[in-house]
Here is the input.
Amino acid sequence: MSETNNGSQPVCPDVFKTLITHHTQLRSVFPGETTGALAPRPLPFNRPSFDQMYMAIAEIVALRSTCLRGQVGAVITKDTRVVSIGYNGAPSKIGQCDQYGCIVDSEKGGCIRTIHAEQNAIAYASRVGIPLENATLYVTISPCIDCAKLIIASGIKRLVYLQEYRNSYALEYLRLSGLEVEHLNYGLNAIYNEYYSQGTSECR
Ligand SMILES: [Zn+2]
Ligand SMILES: [Zn+2]
Here is the structure.
């Protein structure tokens, strides 16, 4: 928007004059960058992708698991930020498997005592009022069929898993429901080998 001075030269309001001044200063400090005239330099750091970073975090979360039948970690993100985490463990007022032992379902074979990592992550988001529509779930082992159903119902739209669970039909169930399902063979070990084992961390 601009005002006119007797219909001749446009007169900028003060706010536009300030913006123009700032932009002029910016161009003098970063010559070429603001006009696109300079080619960017090669990237100085080799960085993990968001998927790689969050899968590595999910592997760390898995270390909190208490069920003796499997350590699993889950991380839920929205717009590239973590909104919830979960791991295999019993509710806080029920004894944990690592102290009292697993209670195995004689029909299905799973541990009755434990809440699965994905369920814990989704339930926490529900508890504190975080909608999971279009969220991404990172999980260290692909979901069982019960978790798959909960994932679909929660609105999560993308699943990234590190290892495949023994009953992989849950992955097909997720795909059929419209979820984007990806296998990522890159986790904590890969992060360590690529970024920390070469003695370069002192520069960070
Ligand atoms: Zn257990
Ligand atoms: Zn499950």
Notes: Residues 50-89+115-191 form a domain with the Cytidine Deaminase; domain 2 fold (CATH 3.40.140.10). The longest strand covers residues 81-87. The chain is about 35% helix and 15% strand.
